[in-house]
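Supplementary Note 3. Input sequence used for the single-chain structure prediction.
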Amino acid sequence: MSRLLTAIPTVGYAYAQRLLLSVTFAILLTFISSFILTGATWAASSILGVDNGHLSSCPASNNCVVSQNADEKHAIDPIPYHIDRKAAKETLLKVLSVVPRTEVIEQKNDYIHALSKSRIFQFVDDVEFYLPPNESVIHLRSASRVGESDLGVNRRRVEQIRLALRDLNI
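The predicted structure, written as discrete structure tokens, is reproduced below.
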């Protein structure tokens, strides 16, 4: 391709560079748009929060993990704790405050909802935690809002949170 550009006279060289850049940008934009829009339909219909003591199930896509009522592909273990539930929640909130690009947007007595953004494209993931009153575990759900795959990001994020809580002896 560079031979083609050098063969073009100097006046046409700048035009050819701009054209090549425009075509490259259009291809990249098309690729990103198709990636985003394929999974956008479930995100709008996804229900967040706790319903009858359970977090929502994962969609069929490969960009979600949940510790309650999950199939094998989406299943992840809840996080056990051996301290007071209120102290476990406070410790979880402290851990979430240092998770990169993550912000807690809702918290109730037994529920925490955080948003976590990807580094480059700023894709948003919903990260939920449920502390049931009758169990000493933190149930969790982490799901991308868009796309078909997250390349394992949601699972790794939750496992890092699990390790941080384990290090803090909850």
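The chain has four helices and eight strands. Residues 47 and 163 are 27 Å apart (CA to CA).
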